[in-house]
Design goal:
The structure is a homodimer of 368-residue chains.
Chain A lengths: L5 E5 L8 H13 L4 E6 L1 H8 L3 H6 E5 L10 H7 L4 H10 L5 E4 L3 H12 L9 E7 L4 E5 L9 H17 L7 E5 L10 H11 L6 E6 L3 H4 L4 E3 L2 H26 L3 H9 L1 H11 L7 E4 L4 E4 L6 H15 L3 H21 L23
Parallel strand pairs in A: 1-2, 1-4, 2-3, 4-11, 6-9, 7-8, 7-9
Antiparallel strand pairs in A: 5-6, 5-10, 10-11
Helix pairs in contact in A: 1-13, 4-6, 5-6, 7-8, 7-14
Chain lengths: 368, 368
């Protein structure tokens, strides 16, 4: 990353904006002092907050607007009437080349619609995907799509694999990331056709990807895949289910340790361990979904994120914008499209060899 | 439940069969002393085990067979060649009316295939669903389908709602269970058409169901629905994701409390709380998927269940078999089919009013 990296911020997006946004940006700048930030929002609210955020005050510019997208606004309304909102203007800064990335904690549907409309998808990508970093026993993986599209064709799933591969290679610093498709494990049911067709595409050695086959929901946290590809409906259900399960277990934990005096004393002594555990379980530590496949970096922070959460969304944006993410994708897309073209010319449908459940013969993938 | 309830058991199914099966059945009989059990499996392995399971020895009959379905057998093979397996014979006991329910911890795909083939679906139900009891902050809900079908049409989702309603009414003892459909929350994307069509069917007051609209993945554990309906692909991914998340957090917890001497001392003092927590997090405590919609009760115990887990699968089987589950379903199916027929005659497609995201106008449902 160069010292001139510029990130634009929708300062009015999210449940606790602009307070959390300012506090999060200040935190972020302690780690990334060279980054320049463009704040889009209400000057009258922002200026007093900057008084107690000296790093941000020195490294940012405020672009005033009265309008903001609310959490309940419909994406269609925002598309038609939202040109003066802080979200629109923050995205526009990326479109105009004034910033390399944009971060918003606002309305997800509106952000998705505006980002697609303003930035357009990268050449060769049919649809953008919402990716998220998923915690595992050891390390992390990227899961996509977690909500940008309800359905995905085999070609779109292959696109997602390339987007995820580039993300894992750059942001997660994985060498030769292992790519898998999320499926179900019943022997009798091999999953939807699109998944099997996508597997056949990704297995093709010409693509040079390290495709390891199908994984199941529990492999998200325990498996070895660095990239897990799914349609946006399934991915969103998995993400929300994991969040709900984590909240349920946190509730059970509090409940269990409030039981007896001895338990409470034990919990008091183990307070440090509890804090460590809470930090790892806290979604705000791995905060930030990212829209992949657009002409520009768009990071969605959790709407209810605290300052640490917003700072980690900025961190993700800085990592992506400062990496070779986009150039990696472009090169791989050329290969994918050439492979698909050749497949069509040879009239050999890719699903022909899609009968195995798991491809354990990991391709000795040639890295780009 | 009458004292003459009979349950047939595939004694050779599961990773730790028949040892765990015998131990689990013995545990179960302490709670349900009047139940009669038919054990299908290898007499030479079972008889010595019964020596240390006096309740089971007194309340069971062994039906010897040399053959068993292995975890790696393909369902198709078992259908063609498996007529002498313990799984087939145990299901056959239900078909022949010699038992009210069957329990197996064996190969899920094979159990599903054999159960469908041998018992057939109930009149009016297109496809059976695999249901599971899901833990919540307060109480439980039933989620279905979690893996019996990859896809589900609107009519099949409506069938699942009725199956789930009958399950929640009887086994979970919910009065007027709240029924929801699992969907994603993005405003822009209202989810697949089949979900909206199913919602329109379930919203119809003639059906008399308490349909509360769409819920998201995190509502499975935190929401108020008693029945959550989904297709088998999505439901299976959600179930496995929840299991993986629980395992990840248990791992984080062990890791956190092993950190310092003080943490370990605290954990030692709080050992009772840990046990309580582990019990609630333990999947074997809520063990047992159930195939709903067949002519007979078929319960799938987790393949890796311990004796407590297998006992709770037997518990579920006894509850279902002893309840009015089947008669409740039959009555509701008559209503559903009559409603769908009328809808077709009036040429008013049910999706006409399916534009809302959540139907908060809960029907004052008339219980059957």
């Amino acid at each position: 990353m160069t010292s001139r990296l510029t990130i634009s911020i929708d300062a009015m997006g999210g449940d606790n904006a602009p307070g959390i946004v300012v506090a999060g940006a200040e935190l972020f700048l302690r780690q990334y002092p060279g980054v320049h930030l463009l704040l889009f929002g209400d000057k009258e609210q922002l200026e007093p907050l900057l008084a107690s955020a000296p790093l941000l005050a020195a490294a940012s510019e405020i672009f005033h607007t009265d309008e903001a997208v609310s959490m309940s606004d419909k994406p269609g309304q925002v598309l038609r009437k939202g040109r003066q909102t802080s979200m629109w203007l923050a995205i526009d800064a990326v479109k105009q080349g004034r910033a390399e990335a944009v971060v918003s904690a606002g309305n997800t549907g509106a952000l998705m619609a505006l980002a697609k409309f303003q930035l357009r998808t990268m050449a060769g990508i049919d649809r953008p995907a919402l990716g998220t970093v998923w915690p595992k026993k050891i390390g992390q993986c990227v899961v996509l799509d977690v909500g940008a599209n309800v359905e995905a064709s085999a070609k779109q799933l292959a696109d997602f694999a390339i987007l995820g591969w580039a993300f894992a290679s750059t942001v997660l610093a994985k060498s030769n990331p292992a790519i898998a498709i999320l499926n179900i494990g019943s022997e009798e049911l091999k999953g939807p056709d699109a998944l099997r067709e996508a597997a056949a595409i990704l297995r093709d050695e010409r693509l040079g990807l390290n495709f390891v086959g199908f994984v199941e929901g529990d492999d998200l946290t325990t498996g070895s895949a660095d990239v897990v590809v799914t349609d946006g409906f399934t991915g969103n259900v998995a993400l929300k289910t994991a969040e709900g399960t984590a909240r349920l277990l946190a509730y059970y934990m509090r409940d269990a340790f409030n039981g007896s005096l001895v338990s409470r004393l034990g919990a008091f002594l183990a307070a440090g361990a509890f804090r460590k555990l809470r930090d790892r379980m806290d979604p705000s530590r791995v905060n930030g979904g990212v829209f992949l496949g657009l002409n520009g970096v768009v990071v969605k922070s959790h709407g209810g994120a605290d300052d640490t959460g917003f700072a980690s969304a900025l961190d993700l944006a800085a990592n992506l914008a400062g990496s070779e993410f986009s150039s990696k994708i472009s090169e791989s897309l050329v290969r994918l499209n050439s492979q698909l073209d050749q497949g069509q010319q040879a009239d050999s449908a890719p699903e022909n060899d899609a009968d195995g459940d798991i491809n354990t013969g990991i391709t000795a993938a040639q890295r780009i």
